[in-house]
Model the fold of this input.
Amino acid sequence: MKKKNSITGFSLIEIMIAVGLIGVVIITVCGVFVHGLDAIKKSKFKACALRIANQKFSELNKVDLGDPNGIPLNKLSLPDPNGYIEGLEHCTPDSVQYIPWEGSADPFEFKGKQYMDNIPYTFNMTIANFKSRNNIKKVTVKITWFEIGGEKTIELCTLISRSM
Done:
């Protein structure tokens, strides 16, 4: 009588196919994680930029908008007491101390640099007349930063009016 070989197992080709499939699955899962981490980093940059823009609007809320001379520039150009702002780089025009509510056609610009999480953000705050109305100003805050994909920018606008 002939004995039948009863040893069972996987062939070398079956093992190689299984290892290849597991490798493809692992590479796909790792790729998803890498893209997820990149999306988290980008959203962190944008959230910081939005927080800076919101802070600029909050600083404007602290200023006395009912001052008969106009909006006092010295209150807007003070550095933040928390030490986030490195300093204003440029204000136009330099000789004016108030932004008048009436008769000003030129927009007023404030530029500076602010750090959040050791990342430099450049802000540009512009205050201009809104549709030739004397009691309403349009405030635009533009935040710029650099990330992996290059320079990114967000811009937020609001309207303010003179408090009577």
